[in-house]
Each structure stands twice: as C-alpha cells, then as structure tokens.
C-alpha cells in the first residue's frame, strides 16, 4: 500500500514572506533613491542624535545613498528568489541594525522622523519599531524555508537587470528633481502667507505654528497641540475656524536687515531660485540664473534668489536676494540652483538646476492655466514612478 505524503506548505509560506519583506525593503530604498538629498538630510538627523554632527556633509549624502541602494538591492534579491548565503547574512544584519536603531529612538524619543520611507510615509517611533520586528519575523520565516537549491541563470540575470535599472534611476534622481514630491512645498501646496491676512491689528487672533514629522500646523492659544509637536514661530493672523490644525507650508524669507518678506512670494506670479550652496556656482551658472531671472522680470514675474545666512549672490542679483534657513531652501527645491514657480502663493512647477529656462518656457507658463500646468506635470511624474515600480516587480516575479 502506497502512502502519499504531502509536501509541507512551509516553502510556499516562506516564499510569500520573502516577497513581502523584499517589497517593503525595495519600496523603502526606491523612495530614498528618488530623493537623494532628502535621504542625506535624514542621515544628518541621525548624526546629530548620535553626536556625530562633526562628520562632513558628503558623509551623510553617501551613507544615505549606500543604505538606500543596499535596501533596494536586497529587496530585489528577495523578491526575485535569490537565497544565496550572502543575501541572508546581509538582510539579517541590515534588519537587526535598523531594529536596534529604532529601539534606541523608541527609548529616547527624539524630535525626529525615522525616515524609513523618506518623506512619503511618516511613522512614530513605536510604529517604526513594530514594523521592523514584523520584518525580522518575516525574514526569519523566509530564510528558514528557502532551502539550499541553486537558482537558474535567468533568475540571476533578471535580478541584476533590475538592480542596474535602480542604479540608473538613482543617477537620474541625482541630476533631476524627485518624480514625486512629498515635502511641505510639493506642487499644489499654498503658502500660509497666501492663505492668511497677516496683520498687526489688536483684534486679530494670535496663532502659533508647530511642526511634527515634517508637517506644520497652525494653532491658537486655546487650541495648542500636545508635546509631540515642536514650536516653530508665532504671529498675528486672521484665522477661519476650519484652518485650525491644518498643515500649511511656511516659507520664511527676509532681507539682510531682518525684515520678513513672506508676502513677496505669495502675491502674483513669482519665480524662486533656491541656492542652498551658492559657493558651488561657477560664473557661468550665475550668468544662467541671472538670465532666467531677467526673462521672468521682463514678463512681470517677480524673481527672488533665496540664499542661506552666509551665502553670497552673483553680481547684479543683490536686489533680488532674500535669506532663509538652509533646510527650508533644500525643502523648497531639492536642486541647488533649482527654480520654483508660484502663482498667488500656490506652488505650480519646479525645475532642477540643469534644466534651462528659456523664453519659450516662460511663454508657456504664462499662457497655460496654473492649475492645469501643475496637475499635468505632477500626474506625468507620478505615473512615471509607478511605471518604474511596476516594471521592477513584473521582471522579478514573472519574467
């Protein structure tokens, strides 16, 4: 009598666990590769927390890139089904490292975001720690049932193709802007100076701006947030009841005398030039910026060059220069020397430093409806990023 013994379901369950773990790592890495400057800023926050702020800026940028690409590569290998010994060791080590870091954050509860998914998803320290514990359990289940068999050559090739594609995507993101902008100053956001009538009249409501997990909210004295929010600034503002607790991007710009000029960026058509590291500009680059600002001014577009406190503008641009803190400049536009176009305080379009603005560009801006211009570009970029992710998952799982 022949007795048939069923194959255990563990290998199938393990494969599912591997795909889930790989998908989380892959998405997390891709979101940071899409925004390399943002990834570097996240690492800088960790450096400050661990008292390593003395390390140079390039260290945070490179470490942010290395960790992001490592996450993406390990995620691709897990999804593709490559269970080589080195992948198990690296994945286990990376997850253990992340879990330890998030445990420290959970214990000391600093005012910072974990940055697990870049700017796209903000988690509390407890949520981040629990997420990493779940990933560790999923990885354990995947590796326990992965077996010792060898993968065929096709599996290795398709995984390497996806990894190479991700590297090209990272290079593209380095020279251009993130395809999807998850910052406060994303296209479609309206500056708080455009939404409110700021006035020193005694009858106006005193408001307080607080920040939490990268988001800013407006509150009154009778409606203050809890201690998890960080105070940013205050002012006398006419508030509507439906504005309480809402998130508004706050662009604080001032002149060399310390007078705040936020309203300049919130009235009419405005072109902002972000220069968080103006010392890196050549004379040719300053000439290009000056030419673009000149073309904007000739068409009635107010042009402002935003520099950090110690920055120096190019010759002839002093009257257009305003000052802001360096993190705000980086958040407004990730590209050093990048352009941001606003219409009545609403952010419409952004360009990277390497994208030249011509007379034709300005004519198209002025002839199109601002909202349609913003939606058209944002939709195309979002669909492009989604197509990149879809391509990667299809190749790894089905090709």
Brief overview:
Helices cover 49% and strands 13% of the residues.
Explained architecture:
The chain is 49% helix and 13% strand. The chain has 399 residues and is an alpha+beta fold. It folds into 2 domains: 10-175, no CATH class; 265-381, Glutaredoxin (3-Layer(aba) Sandwich), CATH 3.40.30. The strands form 2 sheets. A 5-stranded mixed sheet has the order 7-6-5-8-9, with helices on both faces. Strands 1-4-2-3 form a 4-stranded antiparallel sheet. Mean pLDDT is 86; it is low at 5-10, 197-204 and 236-245.
Question: What's the SSE blueprint?
Answer:
Blueprint: H1 10-34, H2 36-49, H3 57-80, H4 85-108, H5 125-144, H6 153-175, H7 192-195, E1 197-198, E2 205-212, E3 215-220, E4 230-238, E5 269-274, H8 283-298, E6 302-307, E7 321-323, H9 326-332, E8 338-343, E9 346-351, H10 359-367, H11 370-398
Parallel strand pairs: 5-6, 6-7
Antiparallel strand pairs: 1-4, 2-3, 2-4, 5-8, 8-9
